[in-house]
Design a protein that fits this description.
The complex is a heterodimer of chains A (133) and B (306). Chain A is an alpha+beta fold and 133 residues long. Chain A contains three helices and seven strands; from the N terminus they run ααββββαβββ. Chain A starts with a helix and ends in a 15-residue tail after the last strand. In chain B, 37% of the residues are buried. The chains are: A alpha+beta (133), B mainly alpha (306). Bound molecules: zinc ion (2 copies). One zinc ion binds next to α4 and α5 of chain B.
Amino acid sequence: MNIGNLIQLAVSAVAVALLVGMAALMTRGRAAPPLDEAAARRLLAEEFPDDRLESLWLAADGRGGVARAGKWALVLMRIGDGYLARRVVWREAQAAQSRGGRVTIALREPGAPRAVLAFAAWPPPTAKGEAAT
Amino acid sequence: MKIPTDPVTLATPFFILSVILEIVLARFGKLKARYETKDTAVSLSMGLVSTLSGLPIAGLSFAAAIWCYHHRLFTIPMTAVWAWVLVFFAEDLTYYWFHRLSHERRAWWAAHVNHHSSQHYNLSTALRQTWTGGVAGTWALWLPLSLLGFPPAMVAIEKGVSLVYQYWIHTEAIGRMPRWFEAVFNTPSHHRVHHARNPRYLDKNYAGILIVWDRLFGTFQPELDEEAPRYGLVHNLGTFNLLRVAFHEWIGIAQDIVREPRHTLGWLFGPPGWSPDGSRDTSATLKTAWLARQEAKPAPVKREAA
Ligand SMILES: [Zn+2]
Ligand SMILES: [Zn+2]
């Protein structure tokens, strides 16, 4: 690598910083709206079209949610202005650790290690007011 | 400092300016484009580092091309117009098969997945390039061109031309190009389909410059008004950590091999999502499930063009 290449690289790095700053500036105040039940159901239907939802719980900050479909937990987590969707065994999701109002569900993938969701109580209460089993 | 002949280097100022333009015009509602800061940062950082990623094997790939050229079948002059026409078609056909291989076999998908991991589709997505293309060895697919007699420099320039061409098609700002253009060339519309994760759009439109290869080899899928593309991976990433973004599929392969080494060949060369027990999603299983759902639906009222 010669000096010309190094200069080129440095200029490109500055350009990247400039463009990212530009994107930050231009998208300011345009954050995606918090997830509501209708949006969550639409997303889940898109991601898991063959599953029948029994219950749905939305994260307190509107940045995700968990639905139960039989033996599965269907997990949504906001990433950027999009969502990550994963299917996890319900019992494993149910046993996830909760700390400081956040529950961490292990996804165990190199590209998606965990889903962290704002839930004051975990496991979530069912419609009958009991802990879901 | 000598003037660069690499088309990508020459086009870099244009890349930067056009991304700025797309961001600003979208902000003021002048065109359709969606940007998100972290996503943009990841795409551009991937692009920046990818320019260095060829270096570790640059010596090997260069030597291999020179060796092939020394043993060439014909001598093709770099100064003749017909030679450039010929290398354009030959390179573009090579690109089609490189790209198809990169989607259909996991070892090469592990390198190419990076280009597809954004949930966005804008000009910055074009610059989201792999760091591991060199070690994946796909550069070897272009060696037959040098063996045929195209000078390695000519092949390298044509590869750059193709990469630069493919830049402008990464946008939602352009709907459809004129009909004749859509018929022959890869366009924003065709490539949106390629970046989509909707089952019916998976593994389609592998073209570099000419879409005719997809039409010829049965992988063409037009963008449909009734089905807007949803971008990204079948299982989208849950992190913006650059190292995870760059290497997640390689790590996944390694973990699978360690867990079940007797299936090493399948883990490496099966289609992405392949597993011995079929418990994971592949393009084929997703398409089958999608088709079954379509057939199960009550027949929609036909909206056919007159
Ligand atoms: Zn691709
Ligand atoms: Zn692309």
